[in-house]
Write a structure and sequence with these properties.
By secondary structure, the chain is α/β, with parallel strands linked by helices. It is built from eleven helices and ten strands. A six-stranded mixed β-sheet has the order 1-2-3-5-7-10, sandwiched between helices. Bound molecules: coenzyme A.
Length: about 260
């Protein structure tokens, strides 16, 4: 259902159900949750890449065959499970890169929205087609999409259900960059490598400052920033990073 591997501090998680375009059934959601919990708790992992198996899809959404028979209470549980996963990804304490290799629709788009950044391969198509099924997003899409691209553009995608191609996704700020399909994973690894070589506590604090600050007032966000800036000065990594700069050598961060 998924593959997970780690190399040089960068984990790659691949949703592996290509015959169903990597659609997220309950079992896949569960194994993704466990996999991301393990990655969160593994100090050797400094960054994560999330992608889909096969040529066609990143993730083509929640599994419609499974959704079709749900009763309202089961649907709520399904939504909460998806939201638990997306919130885990968003608050992992390490950057997660969505490497979008094809269709990222519905729940697939929502998982990508929870990632720290998104890179799309040329030809990828991204959108939230739920309304075409008489549904709305259940894994955070109605909340994260307007926060990322603004209310008007988000409503257009959410209410028409029409996907955008990679270039349009880039133009509206839905993805950070568009790359050739053959080089998608290399580009993702190059960025992940940069994240992985930075001070891990500083990276975590920066993620926390942005994540918490965006839902608070500017004053509260600034207070969080000052608090976390100060926390950096309790870390060996900050002493190491500044000393290494002054001594003109590369830093050796330990995450302490
Ligand atoms: N849930 C369950 N199965 C899905 C799926 C999903 N979200 N998306 C694709 N599949 C399955 C198809 O049913 C098909 O299975 P089958 O071969 O057993 O019939 C297989 O994956 C291949 O998909 P297919 O539709 O034949 O590929 P396509 O290239 O013609 O179309 C899409 C690709 C992505 C346009 C089309 O599959 C689609 O619209 N998927 C649903 C997207 C969606 O609405 N997602 C939001 C869900 S809430």
């Amino acid at each position: 259902m998924i593959q997970s591997s780690v190399s040089e501090g960068v984990a790659t998680v691949t949703v592996d159900r290509p015959d169903k375009l990597n659609a997220l059934n309950y079992a896949v959601l569960s194994v993704l949750l466990s996999a991301f919990e393990k990655l969160r708790d593994d100090p050797t992992v400094r960054a994560v890449i999330l992608t889909g198996a096969g040529e066609k899809a990143f993730i083509a959404g929640a599994d419609i065959a499974e959704l079709a028979s749900l009763e309202p209470e089961q649907a709520r549980a399904n939504s909460e499970k998806g939201q638990e996963l997306t919130r885990l990804i968003e608050t992992l304490g390490k950057p997660v890169i969505a490497a979008i290799n094809g269709f990222a629709l519905g729940g697939g788009c929502e998982l990508a929205l929870a990632c720290t950044i998104r890179i799309a391969a040329e030809g990828a198509r991204i959108g939230t087609p739920e309304v075409k099924l008489g549904l709305i997003c259940g894994y955070g899409g109605t909340q994260r999409l307007p926060r990322l691209i603004g209310r008007g553009r988000a409503q257009e995608l959410l209410l028409t259900g029409e996907p955008v191609d990679a270039q349009e996704a880039f133009r509206i700020g839905l993805v950070n960059r568009v790359v050739r399909k053959e080089s998608l994973l290399d580009e993702a690894r190059a960025i992940a490598g940069k994240f992985a070589s930075a001070g891990p506590l500083a990276v975590r604090y920066a993620l926390t400052a942005v994540d918490t600050g965006l839902d608070r007032t500017l004053e509260q966000g600034l207070a969080t920033e000052a608090e976390l800036f100060s926390e950096c000065f309790r870390t060996r990594d900050m002493r190491e990073g500044t000393s290494a700069f002054l001594e003109k050598r590369p830093p050796k961060f330990t995450g302490q």
